[in-house]
Design brief:
Its EC number is 4.1.99.1. The protein has 448 residues and is an alpha/beta fold. Helices cover 41% and strands 13% of the residues. Helix 1 runs antiparallel to helix 14 and helix 4 packs parallel to helix 5. The model has no long low-confidence stretch (mean pLDDT 96). Bound molecules: ligand F0G.
Length: 448
């Protein structure tokens, strides 16, 4: 069993209700606009918000800030090789930097890209290359109550339909996202990864794994896929990732770092193309938009992420949080995923239509009631797609404890007790790019 004790503490405070009301209004009912000091429990994202270990802080001090040939890069290269099994690494400032570098090297106008589910920055980067992102979730992925051990899987059936529709020559790239963040953080089986590899071979496409949460995924695989019951987490990770031609990685998730990302591959030609793009958009290929110390901390974090005790504790923490919410009568997506608990806002606020953004209404009420910040991943974040009205409560790694999760469950229960009085919202201003609207759009309550 593994636990953590605190070496450094950070004070957090629940602001008075009046201040929360005012902050919400001033934020245009968009919690991305809230100052963090007005937030008590921040579950907006698990990305770059976790606590680093003492070993990572020590690595920060030893970071090599040389522009070229940094020792910290060597440390990253060996960590990626040993943990993930790839010999060539292009560091980037974070995951979307890696997406820009890799997808820019692989895609052109008119291409079509199947993915089990595109995360929002992935969707935007694919679209930014003039390509069409197509989601291929399995049946049940969008059903918050459906049973299933691998609801994050890639639907080969759907992908074959896409290829039949547009022709294989327009599908040069297939992506699999593990875990499947936009499908409630659900895991993907190694068997499914093997099938996607075969599918990509058949249509002569490059196969990329978005590996942001590869360690959490491996922990699910060990519990749920019989073949791997006796494997170590890193062995499972390598067995899954080796099927991909390349991975895109955000070090802010299972790199346990506050910044960073990379592309990794064994393909010398693809590596070269990514490297050249990285010089243009990120930085010299031995730092890639990060400081040397961040590279060093991420190298240590990657190794910690596949430690048995760490990742077991991580899944148990999420499961316990989901149980607390369920016990408080809050409808949650089941089974819970690896990095977050997703609330079913459609079931929580049944009097609101999708057009009234029940998910965003619930996000606002959680903040108003208890200073809790989550994020909507329903019809506000994904206009014109057929998704359930989910609210994600993402859990920063090694950061919050039982009493915090209890506060969130009590808050959600208090909101549900007065659910009839919760009004819907309308968008009053939005940016030009619809893929990214939830970050900056402003809303107003419908009853005003
Ligand atoms: N791919 C997936 C599956 C992600 O979840 C994210 C980020 C990215 C790529 C981009 O990585 O943030 O380092 O640029 N997800 C965060 C989230 C932001 O809140 O889920 P990034």
């Amino acid at each position: 069993m593994v636990a953590y004790r605190s070496k450094v503490v950070e004070r957090i405070e629940l602001p008075a209700r009046e201040r929360r009301e005012r902050a919400l209004e001033e934020a245009g009912y968009n919690v991305f606009e809230l100052p963090s000091e007005d937030v008590y429990i921040d579950l907006l994202t698990d990305s770059g918000t976790g606590a680093m270990s003492d070993a990572q802080w020590a690595a920060l001090m030893r970071g090599d800030e040389s522009y070229a040939g940094s020792r910290s890069f060597d440390e990253l290269e060996s960590a990626v090789a040993e943990v993930m099994g790839f010999s060539r690494v292009v560091p980037t400032h974070q995951g979307r930097g890696a997406e820009n570098v890799l997808y820019g090297a692989l895609l052109s106008d008119g291409d079509v890209v199947p993915n089990n589910t595109h995360f929002d920055t992935t969707r935007a980067h694919v679209a930014n290359q003039g390509a069409d992102p197509v989601d291929c979730p399995v049946a049940g992925a969008r059903d918050p109550t459906a049973d299933g051990e691998f609801k994050g899987n890639f639907s080969l059936e759907r992908a074959r339909e896409v290829v039949d529709d547009v022709g294989a020559e327009r599908v040069p790239l297939v992506i699999q996202t593990i875990t499947n963040n936009s499908a409630a953080g659900q895991p993907v089986s190694v068997e499914n990864t093997r099938q996607v590899r075969e599918f990509a071979d058949r249509i002569d496409a490059t196969f990329v794994i978005d590996a942001c949460r590869f360690a959490e995924n491996a922990a699910f695989v060990r519990r749920r896929e019989d073949e791997f019951a006796d494997y170590a987490i890193d062995e499972i990770a390598r067995e899954q990732l080796r099927h991909a031609d390349a991975v895109v990685m955000s070090g802010k998730k299972d790199g346990l770092a506050n910044a960073g990302g990379f592309v990794a591959t064994d393909d010398a030609d693809l590596f070269e193309r990514c490297k050249q793009r990285a010089i243009l958009y990120e930085g010299f290929p031995t730092y890639g938009g990060m400081s040397g110390r961040d590279v060093a901390a991420m190298a240590v974090g990657l190794r910690e992420a596949v430690e048995e005790g760490y990742v077991t504790d991580r899944l148990e923490e999420i499961q316990a949080f989901a149980d607390l919410l369920e016990d408080a009568g809050v409808p949650v997506y089941t089974p819970p995923g690896g990095h977050a608990v997703y609330l079913d806002a459609g079931a929580a606020l049944p009097h609101l239509d999708a057009a009234d953004f029940p998910g965003q209404a619930l996000v606002c009420e959680l903040y108003r009631e208890g200073g809790v910040r989550g994020v909507e991943l329903g019809s506000f974040a994904f206009p014109d797609t057929d998704r359930p009205e989910l609210v994600r409560l993402a859990v920063p790694r090694r950061t919050y404890h039982g009493e915090h999760f209890e506060h969130v469950a009590d808050t959600a229960a208090a909101v549900l007790e007065k659910r009839e009085s919760v009004s819907g919202l309308e968008v009053v201003s939005e940016p030009a790019n619809p893929e990214l609207r939830h970050f900056t759009a402003a809303l107003a309550p419908l009853s005003d």
